[in-house]
Design goal:
There is one protein chain. The chain has 15 helices and 19 strands. It is of the alpha/beta class. A hairpin with a 4-residue loop joins strand 9 and strand 10. The chain is globular. The N and C termini lie far apart (53 Å). The protein binds flavin-adenine dinucleotide (FAD).
Length: 457
């Protein structure tokens, strides 16, 4: 049993407050220190509507805290990608087979407030305006706050849920070797907004994640429950292709959008102002060899494994971390053993989703309107129908199931080779060699537990 069921969480963002809820519900004595102000008093930082895609992994974690219904009540269902080619007709590509396989667009601010309320209801103490400043690991004393607001806090163990720029990680690195490396993507993002139409409704199909794929760059748009869409433009930071260097301001953005995303211009009336007012965000993948410092500190969520956002899984993965850590902490072991077991459980899976998130950028910006990709997708669905337990589409494994990410990555690699070989030289599935495909699937892919077998005769 952990010596004292007492834990101090640094960061009251998405993961910090969910972990606080799960542990407080299980009787732990929980303090959370958050650098920002209480968003219930003065609104969420920045005041803009920023949304996130919630999928089964995150939903399952919220279910463990009894919060799934509350969160879904504020969410907008997204059935698939609504692809807007530069030329051609916009069309919906479903993510799953039917409405049981969908993802949900949720407001980051509303979700954080729901989680803060839940953590406090469960008995956790949340201290706002208290950024972590320093840690004396020998004495187990952390210092929070700035200037004359500074206060010390004696801790049993610290959990770093303080995001990609984690201060706790930096303090741990002063006393241990974490093996940290950050790989910058070289692409950034800027958020814009599609407001409601004059009658207060959505301006485009609400139940979809919209994508305008353009090869080296793209726009996406996710719906908000107040009938707006948050649009995100992703493109290189520098370089001669369109980049944030060649499109430096709102005026230039107007010209750029009129040639590259012409159908969005009437949808984003404040394009120029938004473009000038909103910062360019940078994207990176963070790798660490070690996530914990014996029984004194452990990292999770973005603090341990920040990733690029193209699979919409950063928060989902962070929420899986919370369930895993809460389960390990609740098991009969000391904190050093728990932290080590948690790291062994989650690190290979975080690495797998980091890799899949990087790959998915290329799929989203370049492949979703490509004929070869669409034929592979058609074959993927046909093979799933023939072998429901063995051939499960990549997106389904990551998004609608909770099999370990590492398993999803491994099977996706085998399946991709089958899809490429199976469609080579074909313009439709009429000429597919079904017998060879069936034989290869039977040989290479074991059935996944819990799915109906339904093999073809
Ligand atoms: C553009 C973009 C789109 C994304 N879309 C999705 C998506 O669709 N689906 C998805 O699952 N994920 C998405 N993500 C990823 C997701 O946002 C993160 O993975 C998630 O927020 C991680 O949660 P976290 O609690 O670990 O970190 P954060 O949410 O960053 O929370 C960290 C908290 O710690 C606080 N903090 C920081 N420093 C200190 C300090 N020194 N002391 C005290 N507190 C501190 C911060 O104020 C914050 O409240 C996206 C990310 C980006 C950038």
């Amino acid at each position: 049993m952990a010596a004292e069921r007492r834990i101090t969480i640094v960061g009251g963002g998405l993961a910090g407050t969910l972990l606080a809820t799960l542990l407080a519900q299980r009787g732990w004595n929980v303090d959370v220190f958050e650098q920002r102000d209480d968003p219930r008093l003065h609104g969420y930082a920045g005041g803009r509507s920023i949304n996130l895609a919630l999928a089964e992994r995150g939903l399952h974690a919220l279910r463990q805290a009894g919060l799934d219904d509350r969160v879904l009540a504020q969410a907008v269902m997204m059935r698939g990608r609504f692809v807007h080619p530069l030329e051609g007709t916009p069309h919906l590509q479903r993510y799953g087979r039917d409405d049981s396989e969908v993802i949900w667009s949720i407001s980051r601010g509303e979700l954080n407030i729901t989680l803060i309320d839940a953590a406090e209801r469960a008995g956790a103490r949340i201290h706002f305006n208290r950024p972590l400043h320093d840690v004396d690991f020998a004495q187990r004393i952390a210092t929070f706050g700035e200037g004359d607001q500074r206060e010390t806090h004696a801790f049993t163990a610290l959990v770093g849920a303080d995001g990609a720029g984690s201060t706790l990680r930096a303090r741990m690195a002063q006393v241990a070797t974490l093996g940290e490396r950050t790989e910058w993507l070289g692409h950034g993002y800027k958020e814009l907004e599609i407001p409601p139409d004059p009658s207060g409704g959505f301006r485009i199909e609400p139940n979809a994640l919209h994508i305008w794929p353009r090869g080296h760059y793209m726009c996406i748009a996710l719906p908000n429950d107040e009938r707006t869409f948050t649009v995100t433009l992703f493109m290189p930071l520098t370089g001669p292709h369109p980049s944030f260097e060649t499109v430096p301001n709102g005026r230039a953005a107007h010209g750029f959008f009129s040639t590259e995303f012409p159908d969005t211009l009437p949808l984003i009336p404040d394009l120029e102002q938004d473009y000038d007012a909103h910062p360019v965000g940078k994207l990176a993948t963070l790798y660490l060899d070690c996530w914990h410092l014996d029984d004194r500190a452990v990292l999770l969520g973005d603090a341990a494994h920040a990733m690029v956002p193209f699979h919409g899984q950063g928060m989902n993965c962070a929420f899986e971390d919370c369930v895993s850590l809460a389960n390990h902490l609740d098991a009969d072991c000391d904190l050093a053993v728990c932290f080590s077991a948690f790291e062994a459980d989650r690190k290979p899976n975080a690495g797998a989703i980091q890799a899949m998130a990087l790959e998915n950028y290329i799929e989203m910006r370049d492949k979703v309107d490509d004929a070869a990709f669409l034929l592979q997708r058609e074959l993927e669905l046909a093979l799933q129908a023939r072998h429901p337990a063995r051939f499960v589409p990549h997106y389904t494994m990551v998004t609608f199931m909770r099999i370990p990410y590492a398993t999803a990555l491994h099977r996706s690699e085998l399946q991709r080779a089958i899809l490429i070989d199976g469609t080579r030289g074909l313009s439709s599935l009429d000429g597919a060699d079904w017998a060879a495909l069936d034989a290869r699937i039977m040989a290479e892919l074991t059935p996944l537990a819990g799915l109906p077998a339904g093999e073809p005769a």
